[in-house]
Amino acid sequence: MARKFDAIILGAGAAGMMCAIRAGSRGRRVLLLDHARAPGEKIRISGGGRCNFTNINTTPANYLSANPHFAKSALARYTPRDFLDLVERHGISWHEKTLGQLFCDNSAKDIIRMLLSEMQAAGVTMELQQEILSVEKTPDGYRLNISGGQTVEAPTLVIATGGKSIPKMGATGLAYRIAEQFDLGLVETRPGLVPLTLDPALLEKLAPLSGIAVPAEVRCGKTSFREALLFTHRGLSGPAILQISSYWREGDGITLKIEPDLDILAMLKAARRQNGRQAPQTALGEILPKRLAQLLAEKANTAVPLAEMPDRALEALCQEIQAWQIVPAGSEGYRTAEVTLGGIDTRELDSRTMEARRVPGLHFIGECVDVTGWLGGYNFQWAWASGHVCGEAI
Ligand code: FDA
């Protein structure tokens, strides 16, 4: 005998729980299924354990999508302020770290507890460690075979199983398979917010820099981000690199402008006036980490003291520091990517309800949809907003 509900939601992550809360509080009988042992595992590990749960400056411009207009409706109907109100109602203390990024003061677990308590109040049935064995369309809606030979049915099915990032944490790509099953279009998926790797020769050259972080502007084509850049033993990371990685494609070059707010040329000229006998790396060492200063001076082939460097030579050295061209070999892939770019083609979905236009009763929300935010709380805001508007509609 099939158990019947008004709505079945697959995936007890950020989007699925938010959708369940909204639908449940509107009186819907909701079944929320997940194959993991615990709900909201990505929330738990997010933001270094403090969950960067939203960004107060969220606008649609902070998202990548083949259709940049799609996210507007949901983002306008459920705003960062709405989520913050919920956080505050639950007495969770928070702080703004930088650039509008809001974090829990204590622990990301506070957010999970808040969502669980809201789900309980909304009468949501949550079942964990449930494998989704098959999904089938029936004249009345959807029938699912799940673990233990059980069958569940509902007129509405919401897919909130996230993307492919971090398979070790339970990412499966189920949403894309269900989209394919129902003949819905997909925008090619690729890892986003991910460290970039370097070819072995360059990696060896940059090995002494591993662990160094510097302020930088990183550019790829017309897009650039000013945040920290981190050299690692695998290549390049840090917020500036994670941000640009979502815009980077295999074969593209990127340009690093180290210390973008400093006029390094003026500083080197001043150093030359004050003490022309010093080596350029010594002068650079006053403003950059010493190992980086050393490597950049070597890269510019400067083996003479500052006094012997004409303006042209100083300019060439500055080019190496503030217009440093690198062609990354690749990215670390889904193993470490924070998000999956691409996904369910938004042309298939109604932006107000997240329902598939050609498949009544089937909805997609959260990361599996072709809407991907920048680093900084934007991805959770999309999960909350798309989950909320869907929960409002079903
Ligand atoms: P999410 O991945 O959260 O949930 C999907 C759920 O579906 C999971 O519970 C999973 O177990 C379940 N599932 C998957 N396949 C299934 C299957 N076959 N059967 C049953 N269940 C299945 N964003 C942000 O805004 N601020 C931040 O601080 C961070 N930090 C961060 C750190 C790290 C390390 C990562 C990897 C990611 C972030 N993110 C982030 C991104 C953020 O975590 C992500 O955008 C949201 O979790 C997406 O929410 P969803 O609900 O769509 O998917």
Automatic annotation (TrEMBL):
It comes from Pseudorhizobium pelagicum. Residues 190-339 form the RsdA/BaiN/AoA(So)-like insert domain. Residues 6-392 form the RsdA/BaiN/AoA(So)-like Rossmann fold-like domain. This is Membrane protein. PANTHER family: OS12G0638800 PROTEIN. The keyword Flavoprotein applies. InterPro entries: BaiN-like (IPR004792), BaiN-like_dom_sf (IPR023166), FAD/NAD-bd_sf (IPR036188), RsdA/BaiN/AoA(So)-like_dom (IPR055178), RsdA/BaiN/AoA(So)_Rossmann (IPR057661). Its cofactor is FAD. Keywords: FAD, Flavoprotein.
